[in-house]
Specification:
Order of helices and strands: HEHEHEHEHHEHEHHHHEHHH
Mean pLDDT: 92
Shape: globular
Number of helices: 14
Low-confidence stretches: none
Radius of gyration: 22 Å
């Protein structure tokens, strides 16, 4: 009989835990949200979603074309501004623009660090320092600098920081530059969350799996992989061989078509919950691949997960010749 009480207690606890996630903060029309990377993808969809809910949205775009397209389908509440997250001066200018348009007694309810890129694709041995720097300049340093520069406005609004990492920030199942950047976002977000805990600011992290967005453009991914191979030393190219590259290229089609989910609204839903809920989650695992497959992998002993993840790796021609 005791086990029945234990099961009942667990069920009640889980039910209450989910029910407490339902209430929202309300008064959306009095709240201001700043979002990076709104040209396309999740940032664009989130800006439109929050605009439709009545929020005052500052949508930061890298290109004027992206800003123009977004303005055409949005209300007057949504304001676009130019932002290059790789340049601190651009971020400072964006903050000044936002601050000028905020009511004198208002801060920001949320800053959403959404801007990101896939970066160069290829094996670690093929990557240069510049490949890592370019990916980190947007995916990691962009998040750090935007947060640092905008945090006083969030603190004034007693609001929240919402960062996007990836399931790849939990387990290294992609190419190294992207993995390194997302592991960095995870560490930075954990540090920040604890530092501002007593300042009236909360910090939340999205960890999406694979979704069909512009970042999974198969032609662009294949070109990036081939270019990374071509930039290596001749000895490295001979070791791997052109056949190695040819065999890997179909993997990009498989990821984009068979693995990636078309349900991009799930990520926007998670973003929206992190912004609107009275009790938002600390972390949002988004997508069945990360909730089940990848979660299992990062809980397995590494000698097992390593073999699962490397099962489909091609063998370089140089390694074949030594067998």
């Amino acid at each position: 009989m005791v086990w029945l009480y234990v099961v009942a207690a667990v069920v009640v606890f889980l039910l209450l835990k989910e029910l407490m996630r339902l209430p929202t903060v309300g008064k959306y029309g009095e709240r201001y949200v700043f979002i990076t990377g709104c040209d396309t993808g999740f940032g664009n969809l989130l800006a439109k979603r929050l605009d439709s809910l009545g929020f005052n949205v500052f949508a930061a775009c890298f290109s004027e074309r992206g800003a123009d397209e977004l303005r055409k389908v949005s209300s007057a509440r949504l304001k676009t501004l130019s932002l290059d997250v790789t340049k601190p001066d651009s971020i400072v200018k964006a903050r000044a623009t936002v601050e000028k348009q905020l009511p004198s007694n208002k801060g920001l309810w949320a800053v959403v660090n959404n801007a990101g890129i896939t970066g160069a694709l290829g094996l670690s041995e093929w990557m240069t320092r510049q490949d890592y720097e370019r990916c980190n300049s947007i995916n990691l340093y962009g998040v750090i600098d935007v947060t640092r520069i905008f945090l006083p406005l969030v603190r004034k609004g007693q609001g929240r920081i919402v960062n996007v990492s990836s399931v790849i920030g939990r387990i290294a199942a992609a190419f190294a530059p992207y993995v390194v950047s997302k592991y960095g976002v995870e560490g930075f977000t954990d540090c920040l969350r604890r530092e501002v805990l007593k300042q009236g600011v909360t910090v939340h992290l999205l960890e999406p799996g694979y979704f069909r967005t512009n970042m999974l453009n198969t032609d662009a991914m294949k070109t990036s992989f081939e270019n990374s191979f071509k930039q290596t030393d001749p000895d490295v190219q001979r070791y791997y061989g052109k056949e190695f590259v040819r065999k890997v290229l179909p993997v990009f089609d498989k990821v984009a078509c068979d693995v990636a989910s078309p349900k991009t609204h799930l990520v926007v839903d998670a973003y929206t919950h992190a912004i609107t809920a009275i009790f938002p989650r600390t972390r949002y695992l988004v997508g069945n691949d990360c909730k089940y497959y990848f979660r299992l992998l990062w809980n397995l002993p590494e000698w097992i997960s390593d073999r699962i993840l490397s099962a489909n790796y091609e063998v370089p021609e140089g390694a074949l010749s030594r067998r």
